[in-house]
């Protein structure tokens, strides 16, 4: 009995250690790039707090491509990069910021044979779609036309 309890205890401890040390990747939002101070700081802060290694994954040149590169291509680039990161092979978490969540979601759905994703943590992600164009309801002929189209 005592041995069994110790064994179970060791198992739980090992489990929490492996869960704790899972690395994470960050996908930034639109018009951002991994080399920007804000996202570098964010990734480092999360890494410090969690004790896990974190990486911001860049897609193309970041800023421009986050606006204009088609999503299937963005997801494919992310997938190829993730597959080359051997430190993710035991599993990892994705932190998505804003539009970066769509990349994260795409990776989970389409990145076949990629390293296993344990959690997608969505910060300000548009997973339920976008209800309206920002500032609709504000007066102005141009916006009224745009919002009602
Ligand atoms: C993370 O920890 C390192 C080492 O303690 C420290 O130098 C760095 O400033 C910390 N980064 C942030 C964003 O808090």
Automatic annotation (TrEMBL):
SUPFAM superfamilies registered for this protein in UniProt: alpha/beta-Hydrolases
Highest taxon of the lineage: Eukaryota
Molecular function GO terms recorded: hydrolase activity
Keywords in alphabetical order: Hydrolase, Signal
One Pfam family of this chain: Palm_thioest
Signal peptide: 1-19
Keyword Nucleotide-binding: no
Protein name: Palmitoyl-protein thioesterase
């Amino acid at each position: 009995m005592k041995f069994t309890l110790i064994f179970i205890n060791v198992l739980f401890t090992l489990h929490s250690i492996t869960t704790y040390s899972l690395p994470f990747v960050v996908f930034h939002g639109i018009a951002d790039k991994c080399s920007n101070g804000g996202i570098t700081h964010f990734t480092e802060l999360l890494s410090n707090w969690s004790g896990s290694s974190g990486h911001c994954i860049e897609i193309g040149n970041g800023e421009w491509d986050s606006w204009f590169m088609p999503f299937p291509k963005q997801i494919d680039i992310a997938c190829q990069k993730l597959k080359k990161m051997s430190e993710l092979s035991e599993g990892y978490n994705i932190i998505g910021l804003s539009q970066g969540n769509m990349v994260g979601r795409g990776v989970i759905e389409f990145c076949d044979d990629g390293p296993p994703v344990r959690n997608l943590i969505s910060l300000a992600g548009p997973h339920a779609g976008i209800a309206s164009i920002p500032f609709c309801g504000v007066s102005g002929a141009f916006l009224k036309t745009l919002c009602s189209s």
